[in-house]
Amino acid sequence: MVRNDQRIWQALVSLPHQLIRKQRCMAILSEGRASCACRGAILVKASRRKLASLVAADVTECRFAGLLALMNQGDAMDAAIDHALCEAFLG
User: Fold this and answer.
1) What share of the chain is helix, strand, coil (3-state, %, to 5)?
2) Element of type H or E holding 4
3) How many other CB atoms sit within 10 Å of the CB of residue 89?
4) Which residues, in sequence order, are bridge partners of residue 54?
5) Which of 36, 46, 14, 16 has the alpha carbon at shortest distance from 28?
6) Which tens digit of pLDDT belongs to each residue from 70-91?
7) Could you give the CA distance from residue 45 to residue 78 in angstroms, rounded to a whole number?
8) Under 8 Å CB-to-CB from 28, ≥6 apart: which residues?
9) 70 exposed, middle or buried (CB, 10 Å; 0-12, 13-18, 19+)?
10) What is the pLDDT of residue 28?
11) Percentage of residues of the chain with pLDDT beyond 90
12) In sequence order, what are the beta bridge partners of 44?
């Protein structure tokens, strides 16, 4: 599980903080999707969480193999999609 690798979490959480340091004269213009694929899982920033104040609790981890297979099917029913999303969630 990626969640157990503190190096990955620290890198993901610290990146936005590094990007918006005042010395860089940069700004985050969008609070859209932020994610990272790693070791068969995808880490996704939760909705309504700000990159500037991101902490590990603001990120969720999901396995993506089952979701990818479902997307490749192309004609999945809502119940199958709901089931796949629940199965993919790791926390």
Assistant:
1) 50, 15, 35
2) none
3) 11
4) none
5) 16
6) 888 878 788 888 888 888 887 6
7) 24
8) 16, 19, 20, 51, 52
9) middle
10) 62
11) 0
12) 35, 60
Residue type at 21 in one-letter notation: R
| pTM to 2 decimal places | 0.57
- The two structure tokens encoding residue 67: 């979701």
Number of Cβ within 10 Å of residue 36's Cβ equals 17
Contact 88, 61 (CB under 8 A): no
Distance CA 62, CA 60 (A): 7
Radius of gyration of the chain from its Cα atoms, rounded to whole angstroms: 15
35-50: pLDDT as tens digits = 777 788 888 877 788 7
Backbone angles phi, psi at 83, to 5 degrees: -60, -45
